[in-house]
Amino acid sequence: MEQLHAWTEDPRTAIQLQKALAPRVIREDCLPTSVDLIAGVDVGFEPLDPKRNVRVDPAAPSLTRAVIVVMEYPSLRVVEQVLHRQPTTMPYIPGLLSFRELPAILEAYACLEHRPDLLMVDGMGIAHPRRVGIATHLGLWLDKPSIGVGKSRLCGRHAEVPDVKGAMVPLIDKGEEVGRVMRSREGVKPLYISQGHRISLETACDWVRACLTRYKLPEPTRQADRLASRRTREGVLMREARSTGQDQA
DNA sequence: GCGACAG
DNA sequence: ATCTTGTCGC
User: Fold this and answer.
1) What is the DSSP code string of A7-32?
2) Quick one: where's region Disordered (predicted)?
3) Is the CB of A133 under 7 A from strand B?
4) Which terminus of chain A is more solvent-facing, meaning fewer CB atoms within 10 Å of its CB: N or C?
């Protein structure tokens, strides 16, 4: 029961933890009768160096910026935004992304005043080598329905996706369908949709499509992405966010 | 052993 | 993820 909240920063232990979490993921629809609030989750990084110059090396100290945008469905109006920053402690390791980004996301989530019915996370759900991508890990931790919306492939193979908005193709890994590759918009790279937790693949794809407008990313993720990757400049960021978590550094 | 590899 | 200018196309 409490293993869902176990934590580590050691790569080897993290992999063991993922293997223990995998069988606890619910892949069937287990969400509210009515989904009225959808949260978009994304993370960005900003160099901590006073002398941010020429080349940025990913290993240099930085701040992890987690953003959560809550939208009302079906109006897709933003009802709340939270931005939280804290020192980055773990490096990016393919397959262990959640161990690098979850801490900041959880802090941001704790600042929310609204209770979203569904989470759309920038990254993979079960379309992961051990079936526990960041969307899944977050869903398990919060025991909340979640969907993974990735911009590129982590694992699995798939056919070419027709260049027609809404077209989908299965994403197969080790013989199982772990997600679907969707053309969210013509002329752009497709999205990698996968179940996070407490949702079926069909329903996950339905929600992503329901949140698409004229852009590549579904609104929840697009709005969160805007704030997460926006360059900081004289505190403008903090003023634009409706409410924010208090900083540490 | 070699290549692949979310953000 | 992050840096970075112009440029091609609807």
Assistant:
1) ----HHHHHHHHHHHGGG---S----
2) 222-249
3) yes
4) N
